[in-house]
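User: Can you help me understand a structure? I only have the sequence.
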Amino acid sequence: MGTVNSELEELFQEKKRVRNPFVPVGAFITAGVLTAGLISFRQGNSHLGQKLMRARVVAQGATVALMVGTAYYYGEKF
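Assistant: Let's start by predicting it. Here is the structure, written out as tokens:
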């Protein structure tokens, strides 16, 4: 059982090194733009709300592209 735990610890340490810090940042940006857009719609400013929803789609797409690119890059390394 001790060897299994040490192998798991090595794997998790490796994963921590590989994890991309920009993905959570992209998720927070996406959530922030979504929140601002919903608030804008609620206040009756639909023109700004539509612009923010489009910005959310761009931010979300960039985050997904970053995740896929990182997975592809590190997938070949291991």
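Now, to help you interpret it: The two ends are 25 Å apart (CA to CA). The helical segments are 2-18, 22-42, 46-77. Let me know which part you'd like to focus on.
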